[in-house]
């Protein structure tokens, strides 16, 4: 009797274990994403993007798989957003400022020029100043979902001639991203030329431009810019782009909630590590460039204020849609709270 009961329990346990195994296998979920970034894999930001991919794959136990396309290898940087929205890729890891042609509101989620001093202040607007909710309405209008930001910090300009102060911008031809920046620099006497991120090196080498707004010192070294030009400003003040991760909304909505949480947490980790590592590496890069004879110019408070004034005067001029006006109002309210705008 006991033998029969034991056998029955064993068979029952085996069947139950098999049932759990089948249930476990059938409930396994998988997310496959194709993501494009404009950064090269050897650049600091490219390495951090690789780390981000490794983190989400590890945290998901391999359930999230990512194919990353570096250096805008599928489409041009400015076309990456549309490529994700239309399903050519799944996610865009460039920046909102590339999309100002769709709506000038993207300027104020891409590069709030003349606004925040540090990445931490700018990230605080997104997560604690109502920024994410406001920005999400804009992204959703274009069938995209904003997952998060990663902000390297203030960028430095690269130039073939001195850029010691605002007066040196007169007739200065430089690569500029599209949008608000062109208006600000034109007011300061410069001649911005909009071109793709990947074309900067060749344009500097051939003399088409005198300088470039590309990235921070460490990333500029990765691009090889200071092999060509020997002038830069540091610390930076003019531009602090918010590189984003934005995904096709249908793809995002179809992902399991646990995968969404992993992606969001990984983006917050990427944001913090980006800001910290960039600050360290930019300082190291500054010391290295000085030893190599590259001239670094630290602008006076008065000259930095000239740029800030020109930038903030251009915000209302550029904010020509309801979405852009709403974002500018949101930024100003938060900047006042931080004491950065009176």
Structural summary, described in words:
With 342 residues, the chain is of the alpha/beta class. It folds into 2 domains: 29-152 and 241-280, 3-Layer(aba) Sandwich (D-Maltodextrin-Binding Protein, domain 2), CATH 3.40.190.170; 157-238 and 294-338, Bacterial extracellular solute-binding protein, family 7 (D-Maltodextrin-Binding Protein, domain 2), CATH 3.40.190.170. It contains 13 helices and 11 strands. A 6-stranded mixed β-sheet has the order 7-6-8-5-9-11, with helices on both faces. It has a 5-stranded mixed β-sheet with strand order 2-1-3-10-4. Helix 5 crosses helix 6. It is globular, with a radius of gyration of 24 Å. Mean pLDDT is 89; it is low at 4-27.
In short:
With 342 residues, this protein is an alpha/beta fold. It contains 13 helices and eleven strands.
Strands of the largest sheet, in order across it? 7-6-8-5-9-11
Largest sheet: 6 strands, mixed
Tell me the span between the first and last alpha carbons: 88 Å
Q: What is the CATH superfamily of the largest domain?
A: Bacterial extracellular solute-binding protein, family 7
Number of helices: 13
**Residues in β-strands, percent:** 5-15%
Q: What's the CATH architecture of the largest domain?
A: 3-Layer(aba) Sandwich
Look at the structure and give the CATH class of the largest domain.
Answer: Alpha Beta
Helical coverage, percent range: 40-55%
Derived structural class:
alpha/beta
Mean model confidence by pLDDT: 89
Helix and strand succession?
Answer: HEHEHEHHHEEEHEHEHEEHHEHH
Secondary structure: number of strands: 11
Low-pLDDT segments:
4-27
Spatial shape = globular
Query: What radius of gyration results from the CA coordinates?
Result: 24 Å
- Which topology of the largest domain does CATH recognise? D-Maltodextrin-Binding Protein, domain 2
Taken together, the total number of domains comes to: 2
